[in-house]
Structure formats: structure tokens, C-alpha cells
Known about the structure:
By secondary structure, the chain is α/β, with parallel strands linked by helices. It has helices at 46-53, 76-81, 99-104, 126-139, 155-167, 185-200, 212-218, 236-240, 243-251; strands at 6-17, 20-31, 35-39, 61-66, 69-70, 84-87, 173-177, 204-208, 221-226, 229-234.
Amino acid sequence: SNNANVVLQVADVHKNFGGLKALSDVNLKVEEGRTHAIIGPNGAGKSTLLNVVIGRLPPSSGAVIFGNTVLTGLAPYKINQLGISRVFQTPEIFADLPILHNVMAPAFARRDGGFRVNMFGRTDRESEIREEAESLLEDVGLYAQRHGHAGSLSRGDKRRLELAMCLIQHPRLLLLDEPTAGMSRHDTNTTIDLLKKIKLRGMTKVIIEHDMHVVFSLADEISVLAQGRIIAHGQPDEIRDDPRVQEAYLGG
Ligand code: ADP
Ligand code: MG
């Protein structure tokens, strides 16, 4: 495929924890505007791979490249500023603050500079940011509760809040680690619809997911990880019937 469209490249990545090979020779390319799913049984190395991409874990060898930038060795906040946001693994909401302010806050750290405080102690772009936050809260179905405290939200609603907090950063790449884990079927379907809407905006996504219904509803491409190795890669139809995939799941 054409490398010019590759947003994220994982190249020959190995990650060992002592004697455990959590990732072995992982290669992955994510193209602009695509939703790339990574599936695999528990313990396959999915979260480890995401942690290597966002700089929380150094790879034992290999590299992660974002656009033209080698990420390997950069601090997580730096990688975030370059345009990679990750949702749902670390709930970093401000429980005592109103939901609306939770969504506005991450705009400060935006790579386009966010908004600055002017001589009157007001932020130049505060009303603009507020409008965007309100619109995102409408998208995630939390607009009516926007003045309530974030801490009072249900688990599913907190995840949707986190998604809005990521989207206001205008990431170039969105990483989702099991976005529907522990959700009811109804909340899962609402979240799928929401992620489809985001897909229409052309945002590039990597989604880690256990729930096959979610994967086949959203993914353009699927990579299957088992025991730290990519054992299959292809379009959803190719993956669905792949005996190696079925074996990995039944065996896992
Ligand atoms: P998945 O997300 O696919 O369920 P993980 O990436 O969490 O899998 O884990 C892959 C393997 O690496 C597992 O065997 C897990 O126990 C191990 N592992 C993950 N993180 C660490 C760590 N920080 N230290 C030691 N072993 C770890
Ligand atoms: Mg995991």
C-alpha cells in the first residue's frame, strides 16, 4: 500500500517483560481515515501494544513512527501533543467539576495552542471552546447533564465523557482500548453509533476490542494478535472466516 497515507507505523516491535515475550516482531500500518481494529484473546498483548504506541512503555526493540516522526523515546505528553489521544483506559476525568468544564479543560493542551489567558484574565477563545464542548456533549448524549458533576455519571457515561475530552483535542489519531467493555447492549450500540459518526468525520482510529459485534460494525481492517504476534491481517470478511482466528479465540 501507499506509504504516503500511513499515519501510524509499528515496525518490528518486540516487548519483553523479563522472560515473557509480550510482543514479538509486531508490524502494523494504519492509513489515514481508516478504523483499524486489533483483536485477540486476553493476554495477547493488545494493551501492551497501545502502551508502546503512546510512550508509556519503551519497546525492547523496534520503532513506532507517526507521520514522519519517530515516537520511540518520546514522553507520553509529547506524543499526545503530536496528535495521538487515547480513550477509556485511564479515566482522567475531574470528578468534582461540571461535565462541561471537563470537556473544555483538555483544549488547553491542544496542539494548535488551545486558548491563552489575556490581560483581563479571560481566555481569548473561551466562548469558542465552550460552544465546541457543548456540541461534543450533544454528540455523546450528555448535553442535558452538562452542569452536573462528572463524578456522578454512570460508568458508560464516563466513557462517553472521556471520548468528548479526547475529541476536543482534535487528535490526528484516536486510540480506543475496549471502549465498550462492561457496557450493556444498549450502551454498546449507542457507543457504536457514536464511533460511526466520528468515522464519518474522517478521523483515523485504532480500536482494541473483544466484542466481535463492535469490531465488525466499525473496522475497515483487522489485525489479530495472539501470544504477542500478529497472526492474521485483513478486511473484516477475510478475518471472520479465518480458521487461525477461530483457533486463537477458542484456544485462548
Ligand atoms: P491484552 O491487553 O491483550 O489482554 P496485555 O498487553 O495486557 O494483554 O498483556 C500481555 C501479556 O503481558 C500478559 O501475559 C500480561 O500478563 C503481561 N504483562 C502486561 N503488562 C505487564 C507488565 N507491566 N509487567 C509484566 N507483565 C506484563
Ligand atoms: Mg488489555
